[in-house]
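User: What would this chain look like folded?
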Amino acid sequence: MSKTALKKKIFIKTYGCQMNVYDSDRIADLMASSGYIRTHTPELADMVVLNTCHIREKASEKVYSELGRLAQLKEHKRSKGKEFIVALAGCVAQAEGEEVRRRSPCVDIVVGPQTYHRLPEMVVQSSTANSLVLDTEFPIISKFDSINTKLSSAGDVCSTSAFLTVQEGCNRFCSFCVVPYTRGAEYSRSVGEIFSEAEKLVANGAKEIILLGQNVNAYHGIGIDGVEVGLEGLIQYLSEIKDLLRIRYTTSHPKDMTDSLIQAHRDIPKLMPFLHLPVQSGSDEILAAMNRQHTASYYMKIIEKLRNVREDIAFSSDFIVGYPGETDADFKSTLELIKSVEFAQSYSFKFSARPGTPAADLKGQIPEELKKERLSELQGLLDKQQRAFNLSCLNLELPVLLEREDKDKQKISGRTPYMQWVNIQKNQECIGELSNVIITQDYAKSLSGKVSCHSKSELAISSIEDRIQRVNI
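Assistant: Here's the prediction, encoded as structure tokens.
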């Protein structure tokens, strides 16, 4: 019997943001050292990990619903004498701790996002304990220090576009957000540590790296020479990796958008001209209530500075509708800000009170029907702007990083510098190539095009504002 046949199987389900995707991959790497191989269905697994998100109430309720199904599966497997470990990881685990076991007795392990590097030893404890194994501490030593001692590589095969966490936690304490309570204070990894992981990712096939952090532009890691550097310094180091074609970063806070980072968008060609910069509201009164620590005019100045250094830059953002106390005038201010910026993409949500955050107990809660009405209007405007941006790309030649084939292997798709999916007919093109594509058709959420015969792979386009103004929809 082969060694592979003797290995146990682990199923990992990921909820929420890209940082959870990164954490899930690291969990898989860690458990591989304990003899677990990843499977894509819980029915075939000996262990299940739910890596959770606590940003919105609906997300955590989905987790408990999934745990209900796993409880039945666990009972079925145990009746046949098979081991089945259920572990809850991530932000729901951090926020609710032992409450998880009360609501879902099937859970064997509860581990927070800062301590999942201890999961292999917690599995051993679980096999001998009759009670819940729980670890939701904020350790003095970073989990990355422990992970790096256990992992010799970033995996055997890597996708064309790879996530790389460089910063965790947040010191901003927005009144609606649970991140400071579930992920802790800001922590930045060293440049050398990140550079080493990035080199491994590129060696394993990554052409694009997306730098992750709850507040990524607050990055302040120790550089190669022992001197602290900001995110722009880290990006400069990473841009020197030969086969790395593209660099992105998310998610940013306007207050940490420094002039030097803004200049990096002009000076570093591998840094893509697309920035996700959440604003949440266009009303100064609501921004103050949210403890965002900036005004709408401050945000617009950041946008202006970025457009001054790189006229082809485009933006996406996050919006919360129906925050407690939001008036019609406040909502109108948000719509006006959206019209002023003209976003290429955006994400918007109704306010959802998260237990333990200051906003949860605020007076002036907005009726659900009014929140729904405002969200519909706001999303209508954002969808119109995304359509206008896509239309402005018609007949342009854009570099597309090819990432995947369709199931029939007749078409291949990839992303433009602006994160738009583009589908092309497959000829000689391969996954991982950067191809120049002439955009021929726009759809609601994607584009299609044909490969150009030119060899040039630079953006040769005019100002985003000029392009969009020429589009009438």
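Residues 1-5, 149-157, 456-460 have pLDDT under 50 and may be disordered. If you want, I can go into more detail on any region.
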